Amino acid sequence: MFARDHIEYQPADLPDRMDYSAEKSLNEAKTFYDRMKRRHTVRDYSDAPVSRDVIEECIRTAGTAPSGANHQPWHFVAISDPAFKKRVREAAEEEERRFYEGGAGDEWLKALEPIGTNDHKPHLEEAPWLIVVFAQRWGHFDDGTRFKNYYVPESTGIACGFLLAALHHAGLVTLTHTPNPMRFLNKMLGRPESEKPIMIVAVGHAAQDAKVPAVAKMKKPLDEILTVAD
């Protein structure tokens, strides 16, 4: 955390040590991969409710992510109110229409064709929860004095990864939605100018007839994403 008062470095013993054997480390890595490869981006949601407690615990997990200078430059807004979700959807679809009507460019639209997306975003209303992620570009002390945050996109991106993993671990499905620009969210959600909305995460349970793009299961093999220097 950052504070106006000078805080000196004080080393502390590592509180949560996990000294696994090589075999257990490999087993744990494989188990986590087996779980995470079952994560899917889902656009079809059931009306099954999700408790606020679950959402809060998953966001609590996101808040444990590492960040530049430990400034933790993020804020999450969780929305379950149907009227609020409707407003988010309407504003997001307005941005998306501009995107699909020429703002994106032909190459980008062609890349999206196998995903089957368009400017129609019913999941933003149908999912029981929306989590809006804001990146805090700078912060303020109690007296209004401004201070800088560091590695904000990287830090917030890591926190988003933690969030998605936590939601999946809780048995929920998600969709990451990134209309651009999303400044309408600042005014709608009462967030300050210092924060930039970077993602809307739709969260819930998959509908019984939920579909996913076949291409989404086509992941690059390990030898295409890994280079080892040993």
Order of helices and strands: HHEHHHEEEHEHEH
Give the structural class. alpha+beta
Low-confidence stretches: none
Number of helices: 8
Features:
two-stranded antiparallel sheet, 230 residues, 6 strands, alpha+beta, four-stranded antiparallel beta sheet, 8 helices
Tell me what the structure shows.
This protein is of the alpha+beta class. Helices cover 38% and strands 15% of the residues. A 4-stranded antiparallel beta sheet has the order 1-2-6-5. Strands 3-4 form a two-stranded antiparallel sheet. A hairpin with a 5-residue loop joins β3 and β4. α2 packs across α6. The radius of gyration is 20 Å and the shape is globular.
Write the layout of secondary structure elements.
Elements: H1 22-36, H2 52-62, E1 74-79, H3 82-103, H4 106-112, H5 123-126, E2 129-136, E3 138-140, E4 146-148, H6 152-169, E5 173-177, H7 184-189, E6 195-204, H8 222-225
Antiparallel strand pairs: 1-2, 2-6, 3-4, 5-6
